[in-house]
């Protein structure tokens, strides 16, 4: 099969790929899509976010896209989200008129009324995904030639569709996509022509004219008229605005960043199970043209503590509780806890390479699946126990069903804490005695002891506290260098940004000299132009070649850590700078190039948005009360 390009390459040396930060993110909490500035959907996987893609131009310019926009114009005048929503509005100007396009994944009322859902394991809500990507168009001035091009290629562009008309007219067509994806139904107020693997439509719109295009991938009905499409768009807008209103957002200039991060995290959830995806994409490179390309369309247990910190802090308890239920499901049946799972709890995430795709700007390999799922990483038990602790604090009780779950995880941490592992960053080099892994094992024992006292199990509390104290002493003895700085691993002076968690996880009080020394060393020695690296790649055997950008989550961690040690002005300045690096739609990838501000890695990145929420709330609370060092506090206790 030959992949043909969707547009001729520019002749001035520019990349044919949009910058990662220029993509818009759409979601219905069951699947998602990325929309380029050109108006083309260039990444979408159905029916789940980790399914094979049907539009893959994000990773190969000839691998399928779905564009709605003016003919001959590729650069819009403006793009924005409708405030409080995940509905994208793009405004176009041509030489003859103005056009406005709105894109959304439709949310409607709960539709499993006569039989139970085969996918949902969480409590039903009032709303549900309708499995429709809806695009409405209005000419607001003059005349504009509109074009629609839908060119799916299923199974990561390995299968070309077979198009056929549904009825006697031209307005409804179906793409047969093979076994890897469901068939796609395209309906519109326009007339489609079928040309090869494409369905196309075109018309001249005049002021006041409206049209719609809907792409559906389930038996649920798509709109059949513009009025019906407008109604579904309005209902989706109300869903998002009603949802964001449930949260607590301080009256502060940074409120918009908190809200956009919350909406992004909601969009990265998989509602049927409560899972939180690390990102919507696979194989967007951490280094331009490099090999550090990973599939992040899965749920990491490590994200749990930070997710609950952020969601509970903003008062979004339902999403936090659903994610906690997903974690609880993963801990059942006495199975060995993994570092990550599929969005429905799948345990095997076999990693393969797609050699037929060029990769984003030539970055190869393109990977699907993630071989790190079976790595030994000792931070998972601490993440689970801190999650249980936060969940319990929020509910002010320990559910009885959780006791055997947490007991098993504490015992696993007790059994393994003294062994080497792959660490928080999932290095593919040799296992090491990473300090942050020992730190998270201490968290498991410390939180376990606190929960045992709450559950009236004094013998377990005493036993676990004794081991927690032993781990604490071991870290302070072997994980600190001569300067009093916590280091990446035992017996080595290399720095690691994960040690910014020492004050945030309450391992030591923020006024301890070792905490201050660690925060200052990372701020001054593990940064590029003021932004934080995970570690120096030439100091760490991570099993990969090449460099990487600064990790944005680590820079946000530094903001929080600076607040902890009382450097409020420095924290505020760094936070303002990081917020300025956000995309035009206030979205973040995994990394930043400190010299150019270019976003690198998978997009949008949940971990980054979680760290943003915690950092911003740290600064806001520090401004209100410089003596308040609580990393987590629910709105009701503010």
TrEMBL record:
<protein>
    <recommendedName>
        <fullName>Trehalase</fullName>
        <ecNumber>3.2.1.28</ecNumber>
    </recommendedName>
</protein>
<dbReference type="Pfam" id="PF00723">
    <property type="entry name" value="Glyco_hydro_15"/>
</dbReference>
<comment type="pathway">
    <text>Glycan degradation; trehalose degradation; D-glucose from alpha,alpha-trehalose: step 1/1.</text>
</comment>
<keyword id="KW-0119">Carbohydrate metabolism</keyword>
<keyword id="KW-0326">Glycosidase</keyword>
<dbReference type="GO" id="GO:0005993">
    <property type="term" value="P:trehalose catabolic process"/>
</dbReference>
<feature type="domain" description="GH15-like">
    <location>
        <begin position="257"/>
        <end position="616"/>
    </location>
</feature>
<keyword id="KW-0378">Hydrolase</keyword>
<comment type="similarity">
    <text>Belongs to the glycosyl hydrolase 15 family.</text>
</comment>
<dbReference type="InterPro" id="IPR011613">
    <property type="entry name" value="GH15-like"/>
</dbReference>
<dbReference type="GO" id="GO:0004555">
    <property type="term" value="F:alpha,alpha-trehalase activity"/>
</dbReference>
<dbReference type="InterPro" id="IPR012341">
    <property type="entry name" value="6hp_glycosidase-like_sf"/>
</dbReference>
<feature type="domain" description="Trehalase-like N-terminal">
    <location>
        <begin position="19"/>
        <end position="94"/>
    </location>
</feature>
<dbReference type="Pfam" id="PF19291">
    <property type="entry name" value="TREH_N"/>
</dbReference>
<dbReference type="InterPro" id="IPR008928">
    <property type="entry name" value="6-hairpin_glycosidase_sf"/>
</dbReference>
<dbReference type="InterPro" id="IPR045582">
    <property type="entry name" value="Trehalase-like_N"/>
</dbReference>
